[in-house]
TrEMBL record:
Species of origin: Rhynchospora breviuscula
The protein's name in its UniProt record: ADF-H domain-containing protein
InterPro entries: ADF-H, ADF-H/Gelsolin-like_dom_sf, ADF/Cofilin
Family: Belongs to the actin-binding proteins ADF family.
Domain ADF-H: 11-143
Length: 143
């Protein structure tokens, strides 16, 4: 059984292991984060990097390229005002202002289709610079 589906607008597919890796983050807490990139040659979204469960938000943001677009999911653990341990999954569309216009367009036109494949994401953030996805942004959105 294949999970691959083509984005009719861009022709981009979602690789089988991409969805499986997301499910490992969601269900098994196997990863703190997953960074995805669009492979131009294969025309599909693939896993670029997986963060170990103990990695920090700083480790995650440092793993994103400063000059190219990426999709990412981050499993954010926090404690509520009622002292309850919670976890929320954030989808982050990273498109730094210095990235190539072609890359920005490809990621923008593929985002909704790819985001739809990731069932269980709680929040979405579109960021063009690090301050737009600062840890405080996640805290504010999760509460």
């Amino acid at each position: 059984m294949s999970f691959q589906r083509t984005n009719s607008i861009t022709g981009i597919e979602v690789a089988d292991d991409t969805k499986i890796t997301f499910l490992d983050l969601k269900r098994k807490k196997a990863h703190r984060y997953v960074i995805f990139r669009i492979d131009d040659k294969e025309k599909e979204v693939i896993v670029e990097k997986q963060g170990a469960p103990w990695e920090s938000y700083d480790d995650f943001t440092a793993a994103l390229p400063a000059d190219d677009c990426r999709f990412a999911v981050y499993d954010f653990d926090f404690v509520t005002e009622d002292n309850c341990q919670k976890s929320k999954i954030f989808f982050i569309a990273w498109a730094p202002s210095v990235s190539r216009i072609r890359a920005k367009m490809l990621y923008a036109t593929s985002k909704e289709r790819f985001r739809h494949e990731l069932d269980g994401v709680h929040y979405e953030i579109q960021a063009t610079e690090p301050s737009e996805m600062d840890l405080q942004v996640l805290i504010d959105r999760a509460n």
